[in-house]
Write a structure and sequence with these properties.
Distance between the termini: 53 Å
Shape: globular
Largest sheet: 6 strands, mixed
Number of strands: 15
Radius of gyration: 22 Å
Order of helices and strands: EEEEEEEEEEEEHEEHHHEHHHHHHH
Strand content: 25-35%
């Protein structure tokens, strides 16, 4: 069993955010990894101790069964309304970082609070064996949300939501006035004065930027030239206050920004809005964008929409398959053939 440390990178009334960096050796099948234990204090000022565990097990020809477990180390059961994981993989020696697994778009446990005991809560996913040929690192973010069910003190339902709303307003004010900032973002001759602690707790991209000796960390500034100021203001508004103004106007650019800066919950929100906005004129463009930025829910809905409306789309003035990758075009024709 290989053990490594875990960091608590953010904690608010509604959640605690953990980050676990894990270096995996070459051909790591049938191996188990666990984090050191960590502790956080709930809204009643009671400490709770936890541990993360990862197990890779070869059970299929092309894929490896993988389970990630959050294990509660206390004696009694504890109620959680939500457990979420996001995992990025980076091949060592300069490899790029790619999203491996995320359930950040699943906002609840489905059937009330999850009673978490020593057995823990496990999430299973598949790891392509092609990815295991070289040593790599995993960057694992875990969000725990305590349940408010049955509370009649500071986290009673009405008070809890009022507190969340007030926190949103306070954090949005902090974004807009820039007080006590320690990081400057320059966009099209305008500047936003931001806070490293907030950025790193919400985005793995910024966490890695500030956790390493990167130029931006040393200069406490970054220049962004691939998005407009209005788009990035809404992007950072979401980081600070979990809300977006005029999302229908900015949803496409915000999805691209969310993908670049590893903000999966914003990306999921943009996918949801784009699915609602699907039309004969934009379906092919949205499909190409979804494929390019790993927006799987949007991609699946685009394919369904195109198959159902194929005749009208082919006859529309904007019809053009030229931008679609060959693999996606083949999938589209396969679905059309299956329908007929």
């Amino acid at each position: 069993m290989t053990e490594s440390s875990v960091k608590i990178i953010g904690q608010a009334y509604s959640s605690v955010i953990l980050h676990w960096d894990l270096q995996i050796a070459e051909s790591p099948l049938h191996q188990k990894y666990q984090s050191t234990s960590f502790e956080y204090t709930d809204s009643k000022y009671q400490p709770h101790e936890w541990r993360l565990e990862l197990e890779l097990e070869s059970t299929q020809e092309s894929f490896t069964d993988t389970s990630l477990t959050i294990r509660y180390l206390g004696e009694d059961e504890i109620a959680l309304s939500n457990v979420q994981f996001q995992i990025f993989q980076q091949v060592l020696n300069g490899g790029h970082m790619s999203l491996l697994f995320s359930d950040m778009d699943e906002f609840d446990t489905g059937s009330g609070p999850l009673q978490l005991s020593k057995e823990g809560s496990s999430h299973s996913f598949y790891f392509e064996k092609e990815r295991l040929r070289e040593p790599f690192k995993l960057f694992i973010t875990c969000i725990l949300k305590p349940s408010t069910e049955g509370c009649n003190t500071v986290c009673a339902s009405d008070t809890y939501h009022q507190l969340d709303s007030r926190l949103q307003d306070n954090y949005e004010t902090l974004l807009l006035n820039g007080k006590f900032s320690d990081f400057t973002v320059s966009i099209a001759n305008k500047e936003l004065f931001l806070h490293k602690d907030i950025l790193s707790s919400r985005s793995l991209y910024f966490f890695k930027m500030f956790d390493n000796e990167m130029k931006e960390n040393n200069t406490n500034s970054v220049n962004i030239d691939d998005f407009t100021y209005d788009v990035m203001l809404e992007f950072f508004r979401y980081i600070y206050a979990a809300k977006v103004n005029d999302i229908k106007i900015h949803m496409v650019d915000l999805l691209v920004a969310a993908d670049k800066y590893a903000l999966e919950d914003l990306k999921s929100l943009c996918e949801h809005e784009m699915i609602k906005a699907l039309s004969l004129d934009n379906a092919l463009n949205f499909l190409s964008l979804a494929n390019c930025h790993n927006a799987r829910k949007l991609e699946a809905q685009c394919l369904k929409f195109i198959v159902l409306n194929a005749k009208d789309i082919v006859e529309s003035p904007n019809y053009d398959l030229g931008e679609l990758p060959k693999k996606l075009t083949n999938e589209l024709f396969r679905l059309l053939a299956k329908k007929s």
